[in-house]
Amino acid sequence: METVNFVEKFIIYIEDHLRERIDYDSVLDNMGVEPKSFITIFTSLAGMTPYEYQTRRKMTEIAHELQAGHLRLVDIAKFYGYRDIDSFKIAYLEAFGISPYETEKHFDALDLQERISFEVVPVDRPKYPSRNAYMESFRITGFVRNFPLENYRSGMKYDFLAYLEENDVLNELLRYNDGGIKGIILHERYVDGGMELTVGVSSTLASPFEETYTESSEFVIFESVGAPAEAAGDIYRYIFRRWRFKEEKDLNCNFSMEVLKSRNDFVSGDSKVQVWQALYQDL
C-alpha cells in the first residue's frame, strides 16, 4: 500500500464515522490491509492511535457545536452517541478539563484537534544519519504493559519512561544490558486488538523483569538528539513522508522500536535517540 495515501483515506473514513464505534480490525481487514502494521504506521505518522484521533476529532466538533450555540446540550449529546447528559459531561471534562457550559468562555484555550493531512516532500539529502543492520530475534527484558486500543495514547510510552526514570529503575535495567543493542529500548506493537508496550534492555541474563522478543529483521537505524518524544516523532515523520519515497523500501511496521542512549538521563533534551525502522527482506 502507498502509506501516506492510505492513511489519508483512512482519516477520511474516520471523519465520516466520527459518531460511531469503529471496529478498526474489521474495517482494515475489509480494506485489504493488515491491522497490526497499519496501526503502528498510523500512530507513528499521526502521533496518536486511530481511536485517539477519532475521539479528539469528535470532541473538537462538539466544542465547535457548543461555541456556535445553535443546538441544545441534550441534542448534541444524543447526536454524538452519548447515552445521557452525565456521561457526555464526564467525557467532555476528560477531554478539555472544563464543563460544556464553560466552552464559550474558554474556547480559544481549548486543545482542539483539526483534521490531519499530510504533505509528501521530496528529499535530496538525508536529514538524519542512518545505517543498516541485520538483527536476529532478540530478547528484551523490562516492563511490559498491555492496553486496550481505546485506552492507549501515543504519549504513554514517554510518560512511562519518565516514571521509571524518576524511580531510578532504568539504571537497574541497564545492569542486565548484555545484548547486542546498548541502551534503553522502547518497543511497541499491536497485538490482539491492543497495544503492547515494553520498556527494557536487550539481554540474555536471568532477571526479575518481564520479557518479550522482537522479530528478526533488517533495520535502518536513524539517529538524532533531543527529548525522546519530539526527536522520535520527527524521525518517524521523516521516514514515512520523505525517506521511504526516495528509497522505495518495503517497511515492516509490525512493531516500532526506539533506542535511547544518554550519560545523564533518558528524558532530557540531550538524549541520543535512535529509531530502528524494520524492513521486509527481499526474497
Automatic annotation (TrEMBL):
It comes from Salinicoccus bachuensis. The keyword Repeat does not apply. SUPFAM superfamilies: Homeodomain-like. Pfam families: HTH_18. Gene3D superfamilies: Homeodomain-like, Regulatory factor, effector binding domain. Keywords: DNA-binding, Transcription, Transcription regulation. The keyword Flavoprotein does not apply. PANTHER family: RIGHT ORIGIN-BINDING PROTEIN (PTHR47504:SF5). InterPro entries: Homeodomain-like_sf (IPR009057), HTH_AraC (IPR018060), MarA-like (IPR050959), Reg_factor_effector_dom_sf (IPR011256). This is Helix-turn-helix domain-containing protein. Residues 8-106 form the HTH araC/xylS-type domain.
